[in-house]
Amino acid sequence: MAEESILSDEFIRQLISVGEVDILIGIPTHNDAKTVGPAIQAIQAGLLKSFPRERAVIINTDGGSSDGTPDIVQGASISDVHRSYNGYTLRTLHAISTQYARTPSEAVAFRTILSAGELLRARACIVLSGDSCNIEPGWMDRLLRPVYRENFDLVTPTYSRHKFEGVLVTNLIYPMTRALYGQRLREPFAPEFACSGRFGSQFLVQHKWSHGDERDDPRMDLVISALAGGCRIHQSFLGVRQTVKPQSRDLVNAMRQTIGSLFSCLESTFPAWSKISGSESISTAGPEFEVSDDVLRVNRKQLKQMFSEGVAELRSILESILTPSTLENLRQSAESDEASFRVSAELWVKTVYEFAASYYKSVINRDHLVQALVPLYRGRMLTFLTENRTASSEEVARNIENLCLEFERLKPYLLELWNGRK
Amino acid sequence: MPEIRDAFWYKNAIIYQVHVRAFFDSNGDGVGDFQGLAQKLDYLSDLGITVIWLMPFFPSPLRDDGYDIADYSTVHPLYGTLDDFKEFLAAAHQRNIKVVVEMVLNHTSDQHIWFQESRSSRDNPRRDWYVWSDTDTRYQSARIIFIDTELSNWAWDPVSKEYYWHRFFSHQPDLNFDNPAVRQQMWEVMKFWLELGVDGFRLDAIPYLIEREGTSCENLPETHAIIKELRRNLDQEFPGRMLLAEANQWPADLRPYFGDGDEFHMAFHFPLMPRMFMGLKLEDRKPITEILQQTPEIPKSCQWALFLRNHDELTLEMVTDMERDYMYDSYAHDRTMRLNLGIRRRLAPLLEHDRRRIELMNGMLMSLPGTPIIYYGDEIGMGDNVKLGDRNGVRTPMQWSSGWNAGFSTGDPENLYFPLLQNPVYGYQAVNVLSQKRSPHSLLSWMQHLIRVRRSTPLLGSGSIEFLYPANHRILAYTRQLEGQTILIVNNLSGAAQAVELDLRRFKGQIPIEMFGGNLFPRIGDLPYLLTMGPYQFYWFRLRRI
After folding, report:
1. What is the Cβ-side half-sphere exposure of residue A81, based on CA atoms within 13 angstroms?
2. What whole-number distance in Å separates Cα of residue B540 and Cα of residue B512?
3. Architecture of domain B464-544
4. What's the average model confidence in pLDDT over A221-243?
């Protein structure tokens, strides 16, 4: 029986009309009518400034918007029929849209974009989030130029962040990918990135696309594939990132999408990461990292409570994942009072590595295992917030760097766990 | 009054532009002449053209290829005699080929007797026949056209110690059309040739006849008044003759040159040509459709003159800076190919000797609204020689055969007015009429076929145009309609095969008949009409309700 295509016939018809392109801009959306219009204007302005001669297409993959998002995109074509742009353009710039489902799925959205990139033989693909409300024309040049003109395979952004923003990235995702793959890639799970058509096609084939799992997010896997595959990677500073939608409070889902993917990739990329020690910086335009340190209120008491309850309630599960000494140290932390509470860098790194090794060995259901890490992460988060409450941006950056070095120092510990010697 | 069989003959004409010097040398002196041109009329007749446009052939110091006329009343001795011209004209008319003569009204050579007299003293009766000034600061708003060679529109005359006005080269002083005597004299010049039987004039540099302070000195109302006067004279005394304007302007600025049908019969559509090349390179119809959307309606009796290439550079005056940069990078990567604001190359080299693109461009030339003009040699895919300087690289001798001097002249090769092309791709051994006549699949044979189809379809000369705008922007599709008849034209601007769906519902029930092969295509229904097209392919369909 013929395999069902994820691309609808109508979408294929639109792609036929677009034809071969040099640059593909993918915008996954879901009810982003408020932001997608200005985003497209910024994209068009950026394209016309930096790539006025290139054949380009804007492709919106929509997860069932009910607010007219796809109509806004489709109305933004620049052609001899549609003149949505006030300036002059050399050639037609199509903006097309496809609704792949009634519910959003990052996996289907990305797969659709990468499939379209392959069908249209795009030399460079850029993915921008439809809910970003401050996309600037300059982003096109900063993300695309290294791929299109300088032969990089992947360009990820760096942002200006508040010191307590993206703690999952600064305390786990970044330091762990850095330690494992030896490259200091600041945003391994970014909503914006650019990749070469060649790398996109390669990933399209390699990635195990799940059917019907809306939680699957291939972005982490994409970055790890590039890191482990020896691809040329570049970072570009984009400044502050703003979205109109509130950050998701679903930490479990975020951990699944990121840590689950990261742990999952370790097995297939073992030959690559097991030989690496230390790390090196990668080609970067602009600052690697920028931290602002204005006041942010955090409910520390609640975080401490969630950590302690998690350690207690998940004791039997944690016993199957963690070594006795690590578990004991976590338990002691859980019992300490709020003032002296601390999940040290060493304890945190060992905890994460032991989870990673257990994930590999499938000591329990892998999804449950990732969920079990959530309360422990809250403990580390509380520690980070406490330690950096009055820290300057430079001190925060230094503390993150120290944590990264701890991840690198303890990497042999992970290898020992992995190889069953612990 | 002579009988006029078809007053609108120019609307369905196929014009062939030729310089007598370049076509055929009958006496072996290395320069083409009227007797030679007359000998080649059968070739032109076989090709199917209906009008010859002759570039300037008047006595001239030839510092601007004859556009610097020193005597309007005869033929340059290099090209023969006035009698030779008359015999050529009669022979052309015998073959139903009309002859349009290039006429430069705006300026003369500085060697013309009128200018010699004018400069001889400030009180000479012809002093006021040219534009003199004791300062070079007048008319500062007028642009300089030949920016590569001229620094000012004024030149100092050391004889009469004043400045004279020139919009082109400094050896081409502008006539003073504010002077009634000049206007009368130039009409007498035109009358002289009309009485010999020429069928029309291509009037060179027409926007520049009049100068006024504080203006660009182009397209002025006074200039239009002069044109109306000339047209009135022409219609009264020589009905059925035609005036073609050379005015390199935007469409909206060109429109007044048609007046209410009481100025020019025809005008070149300059901005379209570079956009056809741009659309082809971009593989995008946008530049072409946009310029045609901006093209105003013209009186029913008037017509656009369309061309792909001519004796000048591929002018990029009527494009934006972004477009000009793109055109230079795309078509003139070698900087020696650039001249003024343009590209001095012929059609075939511009299209990289790609037969499919040459056919597509000619197909569009013949099917867009207007009268097509073919530049001599382009029908066989002649090349150019940018090393010859100025625009001479596109003015080399016609390549008739692979024999001695390409069959152009029996003289010594070193006596030829310009050297022949000899490179392996475009040289006369590879590209010539004789060899192409022997092959039914040659470019020449194909051009004959194209012209035959075009001539058999008068509505392409007079019909309206409507664009179809399929979603595939690489496809330029339009209908041409006249009196209930419809032709559907579909062009693939891409070098790759394309699928296109056309919304033809309003022609539901009609059967497309492909006009080059005569084959039927499926009847048009309610669904989008799907066509698959090869690289650079084009279709012309006659829609028939049977």
Report:
1. 14
2. 9
3. Sandwich (2.60)
4. 92
Phi/psi at A23 (nearest 5 deg)? -130, 135
Phi-psi region of A279 (alpha: psi -120 to 50; beta: other; left: phi over 0): beta
Candidates B280, B283, B284, partner chain A, best to mutate (most A CBs within 10 A): B284
Are the C-beta atoms of B393 and B384 separated by less than 8 Å? yes
Compare all CA atoms of chain A with the CA of B279 and give the residue at the minimum distance.
Answer: A91
In this complex, the residue of A19, A90, A91 whose CB is nearest that of residue B494 is A19
- Predicted local distance difference test score (pLDDT) of residue B191: 98
Q: Indicate whether B247 pLDDT > 50.
A: yes
Contact at CB, A80 and B474, closer than 8 angstroms: no
* A97: confidence class by pLDDT, cuts 50, 70, 90: very high
Domains by residue range for chain A, with CATH: 9-292 (3.90.550.10), 300-418 (no CATH)
Q: A205-214, A297-306, B245-254 — which is least confidently predicted?
A: A205-214
The amino acid at B317: E
Query: Which of A255-259, A287-291, B192-196 is least confident?
Result: A287-291
Cα dihedral B104→B107→B110→B113 (10° resolution)? 80
Is B471 within 8 Å of A89 when comparing Cβ atoms?
Answer: no
Give residue for tokens 């005359």.
B157
- pLDDT score at B302: 97
* A21-36: average pLDDT: 95
| Helix, strand, coil in percent for chain A, rounding step 5 | 50, 15, 35
> Do the Cβ atoms of B282 and A81 come within 8 Å?
no
Q: How many CA atoms lie within 13 A of B264 on its CB side?
A: 25
- Do B15 and B371 meet the contact criterion of CB atoms below 8 Å apart? yes
CB-based burial label for A382 (10 Å; 0-12, 13-18, 19+) = buried
Q: Do A91 and B501 touch (CB under 8 A)?
A: no
Maximal CA-CA distance, chain B: 78
Chain position carrying tokens 């309609």 = B481
Is B464-544 in the same CATH topology as B113-165?
Answer: no
Q: Report the alpha-carbon distance of residue B59 to residue A369 in Å, rounded.
A: 97
Kindly determine whether residue A14 and residue B471, on different chains, have CB atoms separated by under 8 Å.
yes
Beta strands in B116-234 (DSSP E): 132-133, 154-157, 162-165, 200-204
Cβ-based burial of A378 (10 A; exposed 0-12, middle 13-18, buried ≥19): buried
* Nearest-CB residue to B282 (from A14, A79, A90): A90
Q: Which residues contact B103 (CB under 8 A, 6 or more apart)?
A: B189, B190, B193, B201, B202, B203, B204
Contacts of B323 in chain A (CB under 8 A): 90
Query: Which residues on A lie below 8 Å from B286 (Cβ)?
Result: 79-80, 89-92
List Cα–Cα distances, B140 to B133, B143, B154, B538, in angstroms.
13, 8, 10, 48
Domain ranges in chain B?
9-106+176-455, 113-165, 464-544
The model's pTM: 0.87
To which CATH superfamily is domain B9-106+176-455 assigned? Answer: Glycosidases (3.20.20.80)
How far is the C-alpha of B389 from the C-alpha of B384, rounded, in Å? 11
* Interface residue of B321, B473, B475 to substitute, partner A, most A CBs within 10 Å: B473
Average pLDDT over residues A247-252: 72
Fold of B113-165: Oligo-1,6-glucosidase; domain 2 (3.90.400)
Tokens representing residue B36 in the block? 């030679």
- Determine the pLDDT at residue B56: 96
Instruction: Say yes or no for a CB contact (<8 Å) between B473 and A90.
Output: no
Which residues of B are marked as active site? 204, 246
Residue of A21, A77, A79, A83 to mutate for B, most B C-beta atoms under 10 A: A79
The complex scores an ipTM of 0.80
